[in-house]
Amino acid sequence: MSTSAGVTAPAAATSPPGASRSDARALFAVCAATLLVLMNYTAPVAVLPQTARSLGAGLTTQTWLINAITLGLAATLLVAGSLGDDFGRRRIFRTGLALLAVGTVGSAVAPNAATFVAARIVQGAASAAILAAGLGLLGHAFHTAQGRAHATARWASMLGAGIAVGPLASAALTSAAGWRWFYVILAALAVLLAAFGGRLLTESRAARVAHIDVPGVLTLGAGLALLLVAVTAGRTGWLRPAVLIPLVLGVLLLATFVAVQARGRAPMLDLALFRRPDFRIATLGAFFTGLAALGPSTVLPTLVQQLVGISALGTAGLAFVWAGASFVVSNQMRHLGTRTAPARQLALGFLLTAVGYLAMLGYADAHSWVRTIPGLLISGAGSGLLNAALARLAVTTVPTDRVAMGSGANNTARYVGSALGVAGAVTLASSLLPAGQASGFSAHGADAVLLIGSLVAVLGAATALIRRRAAAPVPAAG
């Protein structure tokens, strides 16, 4: 098989030397599904103005058009990973694909913004099942350090590929036939992959009695949902009851979740894992990746479109530059992953993200989208390093029978950070308005997004390097 880089699912099926045919099939199916998930995740970015006009969505609601899927992801990733380990990773993976088809059909026929947002939340829950169970399937299929580095780098490259292709496909279909057609086509692809791709996978689950941690599921899901609702609503003021009430309730529910996990016999999240430096680094690294890299970069194309004035296809092209660089770097880390300590790889990724953001300062005042290109390439390369390191850490810092839970925990931290990053970026970009401008985004706000994003990225790099003792080895299952 070819090992050349590409942005299609067949390229993702290339397996490390010595991998069995079943392992290669698993890698293909998981990478293809991950590509669909990320294409769907970023689909509204390039066509947000057109989608918002069609659905009658104001500025605050537009934040939800982007962030609703992140809410579904963050609230259910850990749950999906735990269910995959206990009830079968292949079963949860295929269920996620079927649910993704249902959610995308809902987006395609949505008559208003509320229905579209609800459908995107369903897509987020479906995506959580695919990501958590999919990475868990790879962790089970590939056992050697080289094999896992190769497989997780391929998986991570699909994150970049999906972000690159999704906005382009959405913008092209919007220009040709309307934004709804993207969701129609994606639903059909999800059905096909659920029907046929699932046959490429073998079932795997933990060797323990299946158990649903109902108190954990309810407190975590509701707590994260309320927290993200509060943060998104905070754009128009933090001292309003509509913000304070869900914020306080969300924090209380998350504290309850921690207490439930500490006392439970079969907890959804083993809190003892946080005693391991590598697991802490993985979790904090994922959170800062969402907050500093994924959140601001998700909003950036929309800011350029509205402040500089480029077409939907041009906006998608900018997203492609960033995500394409991420794809190439993640894909190449399959050769280099075992040679670089994950913490150092994370630190370098964060620093490149910060440098890329600083390189883009002033693009809105200069009214030049060209000025964003070097920064997009640099920060995209940083994102590629982050994705590859986090994917490897997600499956190597937990016991082998809990790899889907490890993936769920890691991606939960990532998408909670992303939701906070998106909400914060929109708030900053729309709060520093010049005199006489009542709403929208401003050049000063756009620069503030880049400055704060770079500072958070530097903080992420420092966090990755703070490691006072060696990581304890992870015990094998059984």
From TrEMBL:
Keywords: Membrane, Transmembrane, Transmembrane helix. One of its GO terms (molecular function) is transmembrane transporter activity. It comes from Micromonospora avicenniae. GO terms for cellular component: plasma membrane. Residues 26-472 form the Major facilitator superfamily (MFS) profile domain. It is a multi-pass membrane protein. This is Major Facilitator Superfamily protein. Residues 1-20 have a biased composition (Low complexity). The chain crosses the membrane at residues 26-44, 64-84, 96-119, 125-143, 155-175, 181-202, 214-233, 239-260, 281-300, 306-325, 346-364, 376-395, 415-436, 448-466.
